[in-house]
Structure formats: C-alpha cells, structure tokens
Amino acid sequence: MGTINDYRDREHWSFSAINQFLNICSLQFFFDRIARLPKAFTPVSLSFGSAFHRTCEWIGMMRKDGHQPKKADACELFHTLWGRQVAEDGEIRYDEEQDQESVSTQGRAMIGCLVDGMDPDEQVVSVNEAFAVPLVDAQGNVSDKPLVGEIDCRVSKGGKQALVDCKTSGRRWPKDQADKSLQPTVYLYAERQLYGQDIPVRFDVIVKNKTPVMEQHVTTRTVDQFHRMVELVKMSERMIQTGHFLPSEQSFYCAGCPHQVACRAWHREAARVTVGMAA
Length: 279
Description:
Elements: H1 4-7, H2 15-24, H3 26-34, E1 42-43, H4 44-64, H5 71-89, E2 92-93, H6 100-116, E3 123-133, E4 147-157, E5 160-169, H7 177-180, H8 182-195, E6 201-207, E7 213-219, H9 223-241, H10 260-278
Parallel strand pairs: 1-2, 5-6
Antiparallel strand pairs: 3-4, 4-5, 6-7
C-alpha cells in the first residue's frame, strides 16, 4: 500500500476537498484549489491541528509497537511540535486572548486528556493508513478522479475493528454530529472498496474546556449513503466545470478564512467579467 503523497500525484478527490466545496465555502475552494491564491495568514486552528495531529501520530505509533505512551512525554512532544509549527507557518492569526504560549498550554492539557482516556486493552493495528479507491455510482459508472485519503488509526478490541479519528473541538458535539459528518462516509466507503467489510468509525473528540474532556462518538454508514456521496461528488464536478463558486456569507469559517480580501472583492470581479462577456 502506498503513502498519501504517492496517491496525490494525480488529480483526485479527498474528504477535505469535498467538504470544503459542499459544506464550508465553494468560493474558498476556488481560491485555495483552483486559483491557488497565497494565504494572507494561517488560522490558529489549522496550525494547532497540525501539531496536535503529529502528536497523535506519535502516540499511535507507540501503541502500535506495544508501548503505553507516558503522559509527560506526549505533552512535551506537543510543546516541541507546536513551536516548530509556529516557526513553519509564520503569520498565524490567533483568536482573542490567545498567544503562542497559551495555545501551547491548552494543547498540552488536551494531549494529556487524550492519553488519560486511552483504553489499554485496545490494540492499534495501523497508523496513517493511506488509501486510493475509485468513485463508483449506483449504476457502476466510475469517476475519472479517485478518492484519496488517510485514516488516522485502525484499532482492534475483542476481535472487532474500528477506524479512529482524533478531533479537537471548542464545544461538546451534538449527539448526531458524527452521524451527519461526511468524513465517516468517505472512510467507510474506502473500507468497503478495499476490504469489502463494514466497520464503525469512532471520533475521539477532545473538547477545549478549561479542563479538557474526551468524548467518543461512534457511527456507521449504509451503501445508500455511499451512493449519495458519489452523486454529491458528481454534482460538485459539474458545478466546478461551469464555474459555480459562491461565498458562504454566514459561514462559521469566515472569521478564520485567509482569503477575506479576495472574497470581499469577488462580486466586483464577477461583475466585470459579466459586463465584458455582454459587450
């Protein structure tokens, strides 16, 4: 099985691309993935998520090798990786009342919460498991672009497997959030394509309370939901081909979007194009 970088060599779809186009902002999708505009800044959530994910990767590899990670070591690793991420990303936009040190403190507490919440009887089977599978609709038609992704962790307990993705959140998840999420649909579609099996996805969510807490949300998917996902991708492709990119005016993600200047000018740029075409 190849690495995620191997699979990204050709045009493809991923969860992040599908989710950005459908659920975040199709205009942001255009700025990021088609126009490839330079980012004015890096949202702190993105930088934090990168350091957190790398720490989770180390924890997973330790567990895969049969070791129980020490809480102090995991917290110190996050602190180190966060410092590297800050240097790498440069212009990070922090939320109100945040700075580099306060984010490091919060991150160490959240990693500690994750370590405390791990099940010692659970075996880690794989970490960062990459996949590339064809997108096939209900009629058997195959898309030109494959679906590419990477599963954080595959675990086993009592002979039963699950795919696990670690998340951070500013609030507790609603009970149905995992059931509505597109990410498990993508992962479990790939699982069925590769192995012909139906297993659950579990989100290990670390909530950014003053004292962090860990929630676990388990969900599954049906074949009909896989067909719906493929149809959504097919419709997205048609919209992209015809240039249908619209701002999501009240999106939760607007405040942290690094393309705010381009977005504010979007309607004026679009108007000039329309006038030019009419002339």
